[in-house]
User: What shape does this take?
Amino acid sequence: MNIKILSLVFASLFLSSFAFYHDASAQEIPGWIKNNAAWWAEGAIDDTAFLQGIQYLIKEGIMIIPPTEISGTSESQEVPEWIKNNAAWWAEGAIDDGTFVTGIQFLIKNGIISVEQEKPTETIVEPTDKIYDVIIIGAGIAGIGAADQLNSQGMDVLILEAKDRIGGRLWTTYWDEAGKSVDLGASWIHGTTNNPIAKIANDNGIELFETDLDNTVTFGADGEWLTDDQVVDLESLYEDFQQYVSYKEDSPGADVSIKTVEENFISSRNLSDGQKEWLRHMISMDMEHEEAADAHDLSLKADIGKPHLGAEVIFPGGYKQILDTMTDGLDIRLEHVVSKVEYDSQGVKITTDKGDFNAKYAISTVSIGVLKSGDIEFSPELPADKQQAIEKIGMGLMNKLYLLFDDDFWDDVTYLHYVAKDQQPQWEILNLNPIGAPILLAFTIGDHSRELEKVSDEVIIAEAMGILRTMYGEETLEPIDYLRTKWASDPFAYGAYSYSHVGVTLADWKAISSPVNDRVFFAGEGTTMDYPATIHGAYLSGLREAANISNLN
Assistant: This one.
C-alpha cells in the first residue's frame, strides 16, 4: 500500500484554518494531531486522515523530517505495527517527538508514504490592453451577486478578491473536531418572508434551521435563574425605556448616543443597582449585540432599515452553500489586493499587487472598515459627501467563540442569558446542540470584543467559561476544542458590519451608496438603507449596482 501525504489545495486550505485558530507555534504540536495519532493507532480513522496531520506539521515547520534516500516504492507494503504503536505512545506522551519522527522517516524511506510539495500557483498573465466591462472589488455576497447578474447579461466581468477564499465576511469552515461546518462570519437569514437569500436556499434544497429567539433562560449575576416575576419586572422596565427612547428620538435637538439616553433614563427613574444591571443587560442584548457596537457609539436618531419579517434561520451546513449556487462561470481572482482605483470619463484602472486591470466600470464592495482605513486610494479623491459618510458611518465589531464539549450540560433553549454584575461586558450565548453537536457559540461586541482580540486563546476561553460556571456550577464541563474570530484584526474587513454612529444622518447613508461619475459604484451591507448589516441587504445592494450599470448600456 502506497500512502501519499496530501498537500493539495483542499487539504492546504483545511489545515491552514486549524493553524490560524489554534495559533500553533514551532514549540507546540496541536492537540488535534495527537488525538488523530491515537485514533489512527486504534483504527478509528484511516491513514489519509492521519497523514494529513503529519503534512501539516511538516508544512508549518513544527516537525522537521531529515533528508533521506528513498529506497523504493512498495504498493503492497503496509504500515508496520511498531509505527502505529509509536503513534499511540506519542499521543500519550510516553515517547518523545524525535522517536516518533524516526517512524515517519522510515515510512518515507521505504516508499510507503511520500511527501508531495505544493505546486506553484499558475500566474495568469493579463493582456495590458484588455478592458473588462466591469471589475468588482471583493468576492463577498454583494460582489458575487452583482457578477452573477451582469454575467447573465453577457457582460465580461472580473472579480478581484484580496483573500485566499471567496465570501468576505461570509465564511464557512469545516470543524473537524466537531464534524460540522460552522460559520465564522454571518450566520442568520434575518426574516425569511420575501427574502431573496431564503428563496435561493429553498430553490436549491439547502437546509435551514429556525432559531426561536424567545426561547431563552436568564441567569442573574449570582448564577440563579430569574424568577417569573423578575422576568416580568425586567421586561416591564425595558418597555418603559423603549418608550423613553421613542420620545427622545422624536424630540427636537442634536443627536445623542444611546448611552446618554440610558443615563438620563436611570436618573429620571431613580433605579436600584439591580434594576440598572437588568436594564444594561437588556440594552446590550437588544441594541448593542444587534448593532455590533457599544451604546456610547450608537446614534439615537439615525434609525434606518425596514423590518425583518418571518423566521430567523441559520444554515446547519454553512452559509457558503448560498455562494456556491451563483459562482459557476465567474472569473474570480483570489489573493489580488487592490491598492488604487483610478477613474475618468473613459473608464477605470485598478491597481493590485498582481498588476493593473482595466474596465469600463468598477463596483467596490469592500467594507466600511476598509473604506475608512484608506488602504485603497481613489484618484481623483471621492466626493466630499461620500468621504464624510465613510468617516461618520460606524464599523461595528462582533466576534465569535465556538466551544465544543463532550456533551451538553446546559438548558435546552436557544439562548443562555447572563445578567453581568457591576456594568461588566455582556456575553450572548447561543445553543447549537439542536443542529447536531454539543456546541455553544458565544458572542462579544464592541470595545470588549476589540480588547479580547489582543489576548490569548486561554484568556478568552477562561472568561467565557467563568460565566458558564457561574450559571451551571459543578455541572459545567471543560471544552474539548474551540474556534475564535478576530474580525477587527482582519485587514480586509476591519470589523463585522456597519451601524449608525452618533451624528450620522440619512444624507450620509444616501451618499455612501451613490456612484461616482457613473464609473465607480458602491455595494455591500454598509451601503443599503433598507437592510443594513444583513446578508440579504448586501446581496440586494449588489443587484442594485448591477442594474445601475446595465441601465447605462
User: Anything to note?
Assistant: The first helix runs from residue 9 to 22. Residues 383 and 516 are 8 Å apart (CA to CA). Residues 1-27, 68-76, 116-121 have pLDDT under 50 and may be disordered. The domain at 131-166+327-393+505-550 is CATH 3.50.50.60 (FAD/NAD(P)-binding domain).
